[in-house]
Batch of 2 targets.
Target 1
Amino acid sequence: MSETEAHDEVTAGFLVIGDEILSGRTKDKNIGFLADYLTAIGIDLREVRIVPDITEHIVEAVNELRARYTYVFTSGGIGPTHDDITADSIAAAFGVSIDVDPRAEAILEAHYPPGELTPARLRMARIPAGADLIDNPVSKAPGFRIGNVHVMAGVPSIMQAMMDAIAPTLKTGRKMLSNYVDADIPESRLAERIGQIQKDFPQTLIGSYPRTNDGRFTTQIVVRSRIEEELKKATAAVEEAVAEALA
Amino acid sequence: MSETEAHDEVTAGFLVIGDEILSGRTKDKNIGFLADYLTAIGIDLREVRIVPDITEHIVEAVNELRARYTYVFTSGGIGPTHDDITADSIAAAFGVSIDVDPRAEAILEAHYPPGELTPARLRMARIPAGADLIDNPVSKAPGFRIGNVHVMAGVPSIMQAMMDAIAPTLKTGRKMLSNYVDADIPESRLAERIGQIQKDFPQTLIGSYPRTNDGRFTTQIVVRSRIEEELKKATAAVEEAVAEALA
């Protein structure tokens, strides 16, 4: 890989925190959202992990992901209840202290009627030392950024609003462009030609995705590249292969 | 943890393999399905990872998960195209050879019209040495089990059929029972009482999940336990706490 290409790549890992996703009770909506969002702004999502509300699991996953990718995003576990242990776990992962943050406390003080900032609610102002706050326009209790890790709420509407607050601060790579070709035949009938096209155009990523459509097997071929000219040529080659297979 | 409890616990990790999930082009439907399925049969899903179609990533994730949990399940990357590298990656993870498996080849031979079992399609019969086949009633090309790892297709209808084939072979733990209590108030107003109830009933797992409902914040409290009596008592305590908070 040339230096230019390396410079173009900005990568990310996403950590979803919560027993409720692993038990099936809550169906995750944040992975698909973040995947689309990061692709749109030119950041490659490379790995996702879902872990339970257990400190050691969170610490291990955060430390592995932050060492490996440009950015890490997390969702879940920053509310006021006993099972919200994300902030403390992130502090442990970074080896920093954690306490009620005066900036976060001020936001919550302004939000709740006098006397209603209970000890439980004040838990939401616990922020690791050295972190920046992430604005929460929906329900006020902030997220935070420490190092390359961005800690967000799990409720999708809040997580999405926090992503909008974070996005302008991120460096982004040259955007991945993509085309797709639908083929009304099973992928096994295209596999050899598509494999050859992938070899012919090494600066593209070609994916072949089987679908079922009214009980018939069809295929979608997706061509991705950061270089528009390569994308065009490879897509044309795929279209030709599909036309030949159908002929 | 007592020996009895340890024996009751059967755990699982799930590995989703595929660039298309990480780019957002395909929205995963298998995580929620497997989470529900495993919970229903008494297996605890403890971790999920989504990795790209890159051999080293797959090998690393499989080896970490299989060392850690009773069972591992994977979905994706066992089709006929160049980007389907799961079977070879699993063989590499286990340090075994991989070749066209006569049992799998016979299944595909019987499925395709004479002469149509092309080299690309025959790729789907590549199975690591020592693995058992997993039946695929939908499109024939089998999955496989090696050690504690179960390798399934990514297409949801096929993955679900494969899970039904696998389920009778799994040992399952004492089933996790659960109740929930809906509360039409923000979770911060319940947090202290719920935290105390969690302490009072250590053999339960109590989760507090904020929701937005027409712009209002509401809460669902989920109580889980393997012991019915504990579940009942803790649920009653939660109901009392909610009633008091609403009074």
Target 2
Amino acid sequence: MLVLSSPSGAGKTTISRHLLEQDKNLSLSISVTTRPKRPGESNGEDYLFVDREEFNLMINRGELLEYAKVFDHYYGTPEKPVLDSLSSGHDVLFDIDWQGTQQLAQKAREDLVSVFVLPPSMQELERRLISRKQDSSETVEFRMSKAADELSHWAEYDYVFVNNSIEESVTHVQSILNAERLRRRRQLDLTEFVKALREGQ
Amino acid sequence: MLVLSSPSGAGKTTISRHLLEQDKNLSLSISVTTRPKRPGESNGEDYLFVDREEFNLMINRGELLEYAKVFDHYYGTPEKPVLDSLSSGHDVLFDIDWQGTQQLAQKAREDLVSVFVLPPSMQELERRLISRKQDSSETVEFRMSKAADELSHWAEYDYVFVNNSIEESVTHVQSILNAERLRRRRQLDLTEFVKALREGQ
């Protein structure tokens, strides 16, 4: 379970898309949200778009691994697709914020690897928010004022880097993913292999 | 501080050589040993070759980070070159066995990253020991009988993989190295960077 967090606009969604293209063993966890669909987004691919009532039902039925309120809207992670991916041997990528990460860390602990992506500068962050043309200038201003708060949580993550270029950042996350897959505690099947080696087989 | 351990012949020396060629931020810790120089080895490059008396002096003067007896000979890690490399901003690669790793882990803890390389099979291990023509058949036999004991320590390491090909293995260790450099606790200089970001600079 790999979490990628950052202030809005720092590039985590672009990094995620590149990673999912090049690493076929990685599946994206599609979050559910009550926020309105932006132009170009599609339901079930970018998010599951639901209304407040449906979101509450999901909470009450215990279907969410984590959920949080961000910018007046609710965001959550449906549990079933994650468990299905994990049990089919896939690693799961989560594009969530620090609130979701804290909740996920409580449930997953050893299984969770968390990465925080820093913007190179606040000017660059604002430039990216404006250039993606998804938000009103009012929303951009609001996101910028929230970014400072989001940044304050960087030290709760296992890994951190500055997103100077998408290519470099994708390589960073792929290295983290490759390395974490080689962790001894994730390769308990090697116990049998080493036992056979030692018995001279 | 990156430790690479394996039974003799599993390929750690070849992997190390490739790593040092491609990663200019990595320095090799040259071990000191009392074992005789093999054909093709050079003093100060493969090992520092000393006699038993000189080795004892180094122990008594507290010049060794770790030392251990392996196959009737002594092996140790001189401390000064390691500290010099680290303080010049280099990462240091250690080609040492489980005994050295345990001692180093006691001294370095958080700073140490340890990797165990497994041979694909015992037949392959024997083939490699024979083909490198460095040891008498008696020594090969002795090394094979020791390999099973060395393998028993694989679970004390942070990372582990099977050396199926040199190329794949070098990529594995480079990923581990890249990822560990991105660990938040190794990037305390980012504290100032994030502080400046949050203050809008």
